[in-house]
Design goal:
Length: 128
């Protein structure tokens, strides 16, 4: 099997995923997966599609993560891994879709408007 490429996005985070057959090593920005995401909850989020399909030790995953915060990056990586798995075997799609991993979460931060302190918040109104 050759290398499979996929992209996952969430908020401001972008994950470029390169997946190939191997021993199950996950490398993020040339760092070990458990060093990059020390929080077990985020590790779980990233490994969800692999655990669901029982392919955790079958593929080596190299990832370039950019932008956003840790949670957005973890969810972007989850989407990237999901898309790569679907490219490897299209039969995986129905099971992954059932658990909501195929859909990209489109929610983004709303821009700040001029004359306001934030996107929706207004400065205090003074009658006099």
């Amino acid at each position: 099997m050759e290398q499979i490429n996929a992209i996952g996005r969430r908020k401001a985070a972008v994950a470029r995923v390169y997946m190939s057959e191997g021993k199950g090593n996950i490398t993020i920005n040339s760092r070990e997966f458990k060093d990059y995401f020390p929080n077990p909850q985020l590790q779980y989020v990233v490994e969800q599609p692999l655990n669901l399909l029982d392919v955790k030790g079958k593929y080596d995953i190299k990832t370039m993560l950019d932008g956003g915060g840790v949670k957005g990056q973890a969810e972007a990586l989850r989407l990237g891994i999901t898309r790569a798995l679907i490219k490897i075997n299209p039969e995986y799609k129905s099971k992954l879709k059932e658990h909501g991993f195929v859909t990209r979460d489109p929610r983004e931060v709303e821009r700040k408007k001029p004359g306001q302190p934030k996107a929706r918040k207004k400065f205090q109104f003074s009658k006099r």
